[in-house]
């Protein structure tokens, strides 16, 4: 069965510092996609970044990068130069070939001024 | 630029009542999904559809039914609401490819008394 694990219920980071949010996954599929979403206190889900299982390079999108370690089945999100607006819940998710989607429990990030 | 629209935004039901949540997307996406979000548990997939006239069970399908009679609409039904179905429900849609992110609606907050 597919499973996503986020072991950090809450994280704090100083403004302008970098932070890493952990995500590990479990699947027997060879082809899958990994996603990170942000959910601010207003409740909407915002797509941040994607990594495919066959992608050899780590994905980057502006201040977001994904540290993909396939052998360890981890897909950690790195946010550089944190801003106050980055305070939110962050969810890691995985889609497999049968289109099943699984989300982790999330990490609440708080950026301190 | 409506994207994904969920109706209603809020609803309070009594145990045993029935209701239908409507999701509409205007992006011509093939795939549509229904999730529930409970505190501390992230999003859990209820049902999904990979095209008009198709539906499939997700992680937590019991107590719910869905229909996709038109490509742009995905309906989620509760035949006999139970307090355990109190949750925030999110609809999402995406293109038909593993690497395509999901676009989410703003959610429906449902309370069952």
Key traits:
heterodimer; A: 113 residues; mainly beta; 6-stranded mixed β-sheet; 4-stranded antiparallel β-sheet; 12 strands; globular; B: 113 residues; 7-stranded mixed β-sheet
Provide a compact summary of the structure.
The complex is a heterodimer of chains A (113) and B (113). With 113 residues, chain A is mainly beta. Chain A contains no helices and twelve strands.
Give an account of the 3D structure.
The complex is a heterodimer of chains A (113) and B (113). With 113 residues, chain A is mainly β. Chain A contains no helices and 12 strands. Chain A has strands spanning 3-5, 10-14, 19-21, 24-26, 32-39, 46-52, 60-61, 64-69, 74-79, 88-96, 101-103, 107-112. In chain A, strand 8 (64-69) and strand 9 form a beta hairpin. The model of chain A has no long low-confidence stretch (mean pLDDT 95). With 113 residues, chain B is mainly beta. Helix content of chain B is 0%, strand content 49%. Chain B contains no helices and 11 strands. Chain B has strands at residues 4-7, 10-13, 19-25, 31-37, 43-49, 56-57, 65-67, 73-78, 87-94, 103-104, 108-112. In chain B, the strands form 2 sheets. In chain B, strands 2, 4, 5, 6, 9, 10 and 11 form a 7-stranded mixed beta sheet that branches. In chain B, strand 9 (87-94) and strand 10 (103-104) form a beta hairpin. Chain B is globular and about 40 Å long. The mean pLDDT of chain B is 94. Classes of the chains: A mainly beta (113), B mainly beta (113). At the A-B interface, strand 5, strand 6, strand 10 and strand 11 of A face strand 4, strand 5, strand 9 and strand 10 of B.
